Queue: 3 jobs
Job 1
Amino acid sequence: MLSSITLLAGAATLLTTVVADTTFPVGVLGTGTMGVTNPPKPTLGTAINQTSMARLLTVNSVDDFCLFAPPTPQAISDSEAFEVAWCTKPRNNARLIPDGTITGVSFLKTDFYVQVMGYGDLTKINIPAGDFGGELDPHGALGDGNPVGGNVTSNITGSDQNFAEWMLYIGNGQFCMRVCTNANSTYSAAAMCWHELDLMGCGFVMPGNYNNNGTFESCEADVAYPPGWYPTATVNGTPVFSTFAQRFTGTLAGGSVYTVGDLSTPASAFFTPSSSNCVTTSTIANGINLANPPTGVPTVGGGQNSNGGGSGPTQTSSNNGGSKPTGGNSAAGTNSASNANNSNKPSSARGGNANTQFYPLIALWSALAGVGAVVLFH
């Protein structure tokens, strides 16, 4: 069943950083320190280094974004703690995504987050064919982040900012990433980038237009509800929600088995937000042949083959009107389509007060084998 939700005010441990900007609501910007492998700030035009261990992602546009992927060929589930940054352009001391890797992208800008969804031959960034991947976020099982020291920036709000909350699903030829850039008293950045529904997949957690393979588009979009939130009523002008908790069964150190989460699983997110003002481009290729970089492009270490090519012209496309995700398997789960209505959607409130959620603590009380309260951190 779905449980009711109450937003709690509290402080979360954040791993990303730089200087906090007071024009942003509480909980939106990172307040920790840059990962030790990372440059001090996002930088375009750094040397190409296909052995880099840097873990600084930037998500700026349809042709300027980065993904986390393994440093050597291996499953995401085996490498989530030490993934490295791969970028579409030479930047952040990161590895360069070879031309021809990404075959389709939809880039969405909303009032609360920026989102990038796409497809490609991810074997070119060391994700094995058929690997159903996993979910990466700034928290991780131990609170150190997956990957440890991973940071994410964007200039979507007008200047480079380090954002505290983000999530990336990647694997099996698909990826989706959301960076949460705003908050208000109802929708915190932590809620908008809720990271505990990894089995549900891209279409459920980050609804949008997944009919984009073969297309590169940038759109403005309405705001989705936080992952797993379903409006049930409005009380004194304030929406009330129920929430879905992914079911999980585990074993305690003493051998006791426990189960948390809901028995029933919703078929989809509450609705798929409409997008508008879409612009397409023919390619997001960087034009760099990694086997033989052109003169003037600094390199570090070895490289790998890639196709050449440059950025193509843009054209305006029609609104997609809330396109449904395609069916089939998606990164870290199964895509879900949605036909629900668009009422009671979040509205922008830049500069408003934000309630920051406590990260969930699931208390399991057991009398077996003298075990007391067990708290699992997610």
Job 2
Amino acid sequence: MTWGLSHQESYYQPRTLEKHADSILALASVLWSISYYTSPLAMFYLYRKGYLTMSKVVPFSHYVGTMLLLLAGVACLRGIGRWTNPQYIQFITILEDSHRIGTPEIKKKLASYNFDFRSWPVDFRWDEVTSRSDSRGISLLRPEPKHRSAANGFLHAIKKLPCQIASYIVAHTFGRRMLYPGSVYLLQKAVMPMLLQGQARLVEEYNGKRAKLLACDGNEIDTMFVDRRESSEPHGKKLVICCEGNAGFYEVGCLPTPLDAGYSVLGWNHPGFAGSTVSPRVPGGGREPRSPGSQPPCSNHQPLLLSQSWGENPGVLAPRGLVTRTVRQYLNLNNGEQLCRYQGPVLLVRRTKDEIITTTYPKAMAEEGVQVVREWLEASNAVEEASVYSSYEVDEDWCLSVLSSYQAEHGGRFPWSVGEDMMPEGQRQLALFLARKHLQNFEATHCTPLPPPAFRLPWHL
């Protein structure tokens, strides 16, 4: 526990008994994490050597039981050391008052401490502003319909059962940890000093406010809110919700980009990441659109900027087999499918090594349109991009009039069928015009932060 995320910084000093006991428990936690991730290989090795027999397992279980009793004694000694420390007693008093009273003054005092976030009181609950029935009206939160056919009979289900069991085990053990490396305890342990430093910076320099959100699925989400509505920043009244990637944390993630651009910002950690509790999961219906560079499940169709994003996972991870089946059923993060259900304006930032093309104008992006967009995307620099764009003599006023007319006649719900009855020349112009509006090139690698000048709101009619 660190005390003093404030300008009058004072760090909590554990006494000798607590310090040594805490070191032993921390070491035991690391060893347990290593044992957990290497357990499949260890079990295979022990089985091959013939050690998985009752004559060998029973004495080993006695050793394990003895170690657990010793660790329990060490935990008791740490507790004694804490309760004899006046600083810790003061912290516990504030923590209990925050749970019992919860006044702004008490929460402000609690924010001066950094401790296990599981003990932090819940600041906001999902059922305070909405209901579970309301959430079903949001397209990104609705489960996918299940299609039934004659093939899905009893015998077919029995035949698929071994593969389904294997996929379930893979997805709920090491699979989701490979997909979400930020949820791995060892990685979090390694980056914890940077996370604490980043959190202190957000609180001290930007007056950030940390809070716990209780989601409808039981996850407790660690958030950081920087409010600039009362500041002199021109964009302070606009809130940017920052969604980190599969190994990102808001403490050291993409928050600085909109912060330096003058926006109010809300950052949050995925479930299982740092302070957010429970393990990350993506249900088969894709209820939670979390992915590398994922979008928040917004219901009011606000602008969306998508950067550093993958396409469909099976194409990235494996060509076929168990991995593809597991990813599609349990860990599918197909951003293209989710974007087709998103009704707000979108801007895609394309990294030089992250090629993504997602469209909500399928008729305009027919064969003619795709060909010229590919040519435009293959340009190596901005000068070549402008040359390709000008070579097709794109009439931007005409494109705007076509889109405006379609919107007035058919409404704004995507996907649009604009360009369906258009000549190839018109499709090419419209495709290039839309690509230039919705795609932004950024010459950098995957993990390079987006600079504030490159952060802009998506274009819309």
Job 3
Amino acid sequence: MNYRRLPNGLEVSELGVGVWSLVTDEWGADTSIAEDIIKEALNLGINFFDTADVYGRGRGEEILHRSLGPKISNVVILTKIGLDFYGCGGVKPNFNVDYLRVALSRSLERLGVGYVDILMLHNPVMNVIKSRDVFEFLREVKRSGEAKMVGVALGPTLGWGEEGKAAVYMGYEALEHIFNAIEQLPGLELLKFDGVAQFIRVPHASDVLDEERWPLKQSPSLHRSLKSYSWIQRALAESKGLEDIANRAGLKLYELALKYVLAYENVSSVLPNITSRHDLQRFVNAVEKPPLDKSAVEEVLSYWKSHLLDLNYESINETDRFKRQE
């Protein structure tokens, strides 16, 4: 396993494990084997685990504590707060500083630690990102030693580029966002920022770029249902060109998708949706292959510009309905 150094000196594995896809059924996982997969990931050299308090309503953090035990101090944990699931029946954004303080305390308790390596706000909108009160709270958390880095997880959809830039200008040290060979904007713009840890999720574009998941089923219980089935079908058709590029590079499409993301030096770690031991092993094998050569990277970029931009912009526009809730 290869590792990359964060701006604060921490080293993280190029492949991270996102606990979300292990403790919910939104990606079709067998949630009963989550602990086994986390233990196996550690054995395979993975030291970066991404979670949030809301994942499984606390279960994601609890499973990391149980799976890693005392070894949790030897890995890098990223967790997120700001989506309130306590006692309200559903989930709602809550970035009130008093709530954030309680949420952090409960996350640390579930993880069984005194601090987290990276603490992020979970899907904040622009006014939250620019809030001095929220930012000062997170600076206080750093000063107290309860977090080593603070950042922003952009989402749940793609089009939060301006929010990502605002977070960097505010002084946040880390971003988590969507970036893949189909949905390259706004990720390409965010990846221009040096000195910011950047964690990439959805590298397979809602499984469109993972041929082992084909044919893709549409179900309201799956997270990809946030996208129109028309988008999925058109993206699948256009992905054949990327599959040709993968074949010329001696890779499978899902391997090309991961290696393309990691071709960008400002990417700290990539977080594919792992739902089984088989996924874990094949993704480890993929990232351990030699880096994608420059000509293949340029070929992917060229194909994106000529065939995939409309799909990318359509994904960005999906965000409008969330921004109207600000």
